[in-house]
From TrEMBL:
It comes from the Bacteria. It comes from Sporosarcina highlanderae. Pfam families: Response_reg (PF00072), YcbB (PF08664). Residues 2-118 form the Response regulatory domain. This is Response regulator. PANTHER family: TRANSCRIPTIONAL REGULATORY PROTEIN GLNL, TWO-COMPONENT RESPONSE REGULATOR. Gene3D superfamilies: 3.40.50.2300.
């Protein structure tokens, strides 16, 4: 992924570049302080993602986003802002901003938000390829194509920032198991559910205990990452759709708000977040069933 950083603060640009490189999120193809030549540089270098500060001396970030959009720039925008209020957030979204990162810069929040932008960019590129292919062969519109269970599950996990986690495969198999059982109102014991998923993956009997333990660890890790991701979104703007929709449904909301405060205050967690695996799995199953009904 190609990034361009626009910020009149050298320290902020350096920190962002370091996070992008250290976490293997892509390459920084250019950076600027927001001067008059910045827009020309962006058009020349064609980054996938532009990180842009809200307050800059020559042109504020929202106005620069508008101008770039007007001139045909197709990449995503992540806005950096120390001042966040609903009016400003609404104006930024209307201008074309996709995500926010709160200042002062927090490494966890930056990584979480940028991973989300990468997933969105990859998804959009895939959809463009599919639509182009359908246009060539004269197939019906993509929106009319029924969504498979895998597509629905991965879409939900992508919204929560964990489609790339190792546990996403385990979650997919578990939802397949639950879907086969039909009309699930409550989950069986987790160990039993993990065993069914492991068998569905092709695990032989002698390896079941080891694989069940591994599935448990991967799923708990994925849920923990989802909590961090949603808390990062909520810390920037609690009206973001993914935060508003998933945080209260899938998780203990008190745990989410605790992580939000820690991120906002750059505090080191004093204890791990409480993870309610059964609630998460049941809600993921119900969400999958509901979305498939909507597309049928």
């Amino acid at each position: 992924m190609r990034y361009f950083i626009i910020d009149d603060d050298n320290v902020s640009r350096s920190m962002l570049k370091s996070i992008i490189v250290d976490q293997g999120l892509g390459i920084v193809v250019g950076e600027a302080d927001g001067g008059l030549k910045t827009i020309e540089q962006v058009h020349t270098l064609i980054p996938n993602i532009v990180l842009i500060d809200l307050l800059m001396p020559e042109m504020d970030g929202i106005e620069m986003v508008r101008q770039l959009k007007t001139e045909g720039f197709q990449g995503q925008f992540v806005m950096l802002s120390q001042v966040v209020n609903k009016e400003m957030v609404g104006e930024a979204y209307l201008a074309g901003v996709d995500f926010f990162i709160h200042k002062p810069i927090n490494r966890i929040e930056v990584e979480s938000v940028l991973r989300r932008t990468v997933e969105k960019e990859q998804l959009m590129q895939s959809l463009v390829t599919i639509r182009d292919s359908l246009a060539v062969i004269g197939s019906p519109l993509l929106e009319k194509t029924p969504r498979t269970l895998k597509e629905v599950v991965l879409s939900v996990l992508r919204d929560m920032g964990i489609a790339g986690e190792n546990g996403s495969r385990d979650l997919l198999y578990i939802i397949e198991v639950l879907t086969e059982q039909r009309n699930v109102d409550s989950l069986p014991p987790l160990k039993e559910l993990y065993e069914l998923a492991a068998r569905k993956m092709g695990t032989v009997e002698r390896d079941l205990p080891k694989e069940v333990k591994a599935i448990e660890q991967r799923i708990r890790r994925a849920i923990s990452v989802a909590i961090d991701h949603l808390a990062s979104l909520g810390a920037v703007d609690y009206t973001i759709h993914e935060f508003e929709y998933y945080a209260p449904r899938f998780f203990d909301f008190q745990e989410i708000t605790m992580r939000m405060r820690q991120i906002q205050n750059e505090e080191t967690p004093t204890r791990p977040v409480k993870i309610q695996v059964k609630k998460f799995l049941l809600m993921l199953y119900k969400e999958t069933v509901e979305q498939q009904k909507n597309f049928s």
